[in-house]
Amino acid sequence: MLAAVLDGSHPIKAFREHRGMTQAQLAKAAGTSSAYISQIERNGRRAGRKLRVKLAKALRVAPDLLERDEN
Questions:
Q1: Please, where are the H alpha helices in 1-71?
Q2: pTM assigned to the model
């Protein structure tokens, strides 16, 4: 999972795949759409704080771990 992030994968995608979840499963657990999850994972959109908290709960990680370093 760490290797995926280091290779450029979005942290949400890396944790989702690590947990064996589909985008649809994660979206349902977080109360959003799989299209939105796809956009976040492709860096087309950013997850706001509230959504990041919901995603973190679904993925069983701290919300800060889901932030993408934009620097």
A1: 2-6, 11-18, 23-30, 34-41, 49-59
A2: 0.87
